[in-house]
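Hi,

I'm pasting everything inline rather than attaching a file, because the server keeps stripping attachments. The sequence lines come first, and each chain or strand is labelled.
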Amino acid sequence: MTTTTSRAASPVPAAPTGTGSRVTRILGIASLIGVAVLVLYGLRISKEDAQLGETIRILYMHVPTVSAAYLAFVITAVGSVMYLWKRSEFWDLLAASSAEIGVLFFALTILNGMLWGKITWGVFWRWEPRLTTTAVLFLTYLGYLAARAVPTSTRTRGTISAVIGIMAVVNIPIVHKAVDWWRGLHQEKTIFGTVDPDMKGTQLFTAYLGLTVFMLIFAWLLIHRFRVAWLAERANDVGLDAALAERRAEGTADGSANETADGSANETADSSANGPADGSANEPANESADESAGAGLGGAR
Amino acid sequence: MIRDVALVAGKDLRLEMRSRVGIGQVVPFALLVLLLFAFALDPERGVLDRVTSGLFWVVVLFCSVLFIQRSFGVEAEDGIIDALRLTGLSAPSIYIGKVAALVVELLALEVVLAVGVAIFYGTTFGGFPLLLTAAVAATLGIAGSGSVYGALSARLRTRDTLLPLLLLPLLAPVLIAATRAFEVGMGREAGQGWSWVALLGIFALVYLSLGALLFRPLMEDA
Amino acid sequence: MESVVHLRSAVAVLGRFPALAGVDLDVDHGEILLLRGPNGAGKTTMLRLCAGLTPLSSGEAVVLGVDLARQAHAVRRRVGLLGHATYLYDDLTVTENLDFWARASGATTADGRAALDRLGVAHRLWSLPVHALSAGQRRRVSFSAMVARRPELWLLDEPHAGLDAAGRDIIDGLMREASSVGATVLFASHELDRAGDVATRAVEIVGGTITAPVPPAGAPLAASVAP
Amino acid sequence: MSDWAYILIAWIATFTATGAYALYVIRRGRKLSRIVPPEQRRWM
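And the predicted assembly:
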């Protein structure tokens, strides 16, 4: 994910007003073209399937979204492990952004599955292995986002989300196994599994086209969502500098008004109050942003 | 290490004996839920005995949430998290100690619940080796994963509502496997109960080892 | 000899509030340092930072030779912290608490019992659950739980608060004893008259920074601290 | 509702949801970058 192309030579262009950049523009355009072609193929050009009939067209939506979701949760797991190891903000924000996108795609997977079910089974919901697994895992990662939303210090939030990210990803194979054994016995018609092997020609092409397009969309979303998370942390730091300066001012202004009655303590406080405060006021307070800002994705200093 | 584990587990069990939360509140709650299910499902029409093992494990799951909340809620008060960090106890030994205490409490609850189910629902338990191993494996899995989430949510202000949301979806495979194993054990379903027990065993092993690894960052930084 | 506590422009942020905004401080072996300042000045955060419990946001912090920026947890075992919380299990009895906390820190139950006696906790209280004790008694029990661990660095947040005269004398005696045996004491207090007598040095903390580096122990202490 | 209706709903819903989320992220990015000083917004 970290594209570390060398930076354009100076003069350095004005800072972008949003989270866009050359990379995301390329990805964005490619995704839009891809979507157009996918719609063309998925709905017009490709034929209906021998077994699945028209419902194969929903498959073109379902397979990419579930694949993107699983990729997202793998990235979250990797980010979580790296965060616990390296403790750098980059991995924490990457894991969180990826999880959020993963949950979105899982929701879409469930929606597509239910629509597919409505056509094939006539009902929106069947306790069919794939749908059930997706629903359970969706809830697990909803828990991840809920835990992350609880206000707490960034360090605690990072550790807690990393632990949940790891606990949840390990659950994926176990849930798959349990649900397959449990519902797999009743072999209803189920298409989800892997891409239907005996698809040929345009159908196979459309299926893989869908996969690529959604991967592009996923990459685009992840880069943008990561940068938003990065900016949110920097916005906190901006607040922090102000609070730091204010806190020091409180120190000096307060010097004369502190509650100790004796005179001597007051004037010693006043005379030397500004000494140490000035010394350390200007050095950049948010060191933590520096040493973890190396990644190409995030803003490099 | 074993000494520390015994120390922590001993403390937890003594805390339970002193405060009587488990015996005095959680077990009666479990029996109460059995009654509620009976009221809801009208025992005459035979629905009840078909779903007994499912109800049994749903009640165990809910009670484990209560036990975990109690066990880690106590640690979150009076600055005890800080005191624990200042002792020389290693994170894994605290984790295993708390899991051990939870397993003891949960197994005790399951015994009482089984008696309750036998009386209220008139179920006859068969296939004891299968039932016992399934119950022990499931309980280890619940306590293993539950302790991680218990420690984690104890740090946050909204811990009572967050713990069930985090833990119960994770325990879905345990609920499925334990219920199926019990169904096979009670002869009400064909199929190999032992493969379900194997799944419960894998779940327990995975989350016990993962928990021991993940407890260190939770103790140190969260 | 290298100082026990060495802080250089240490910043500690709680949520988004910079509780410590650049603290410079050095504390040597055997010192009993009084930390004075108004409420919310950052005294408690400073003690928790030295205990390795509050993470260092920036700056430098070395306690007992351990760099807190990298492995804060390494210092915790050798430090004793006493704060407004009791650090005790309310439902357990006094002895059960002491036994647990002593053995958890590698001390023995005998150390725990000796500490209880040293703090003057009456034997009839020993079998009572902690929640049945008065605040002052609870304070003495949590103090003895800390003493039993024989920490090298004592971090006390208003040790005298909630104690009667006899209790305060015991606390002062313990601090002097610890200092004489080579341990170091850093305590925050508002009772300046009593604290002044036992402290070897005092510093003023206001707005998250040390503002008044009071002359070193050699200078006549009474002049700069007592009214 | 014929099969085709559900298929169209599936496609439309998927792309509108993804598009809406993309807009939400872009808008948040714009809003936040007004607060953050320029030198911290160097993207590759």
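Chains B and D do not touch (no CB pair under 8 Å).

If the labels don't parse on your end, tell me and I'll reformat.
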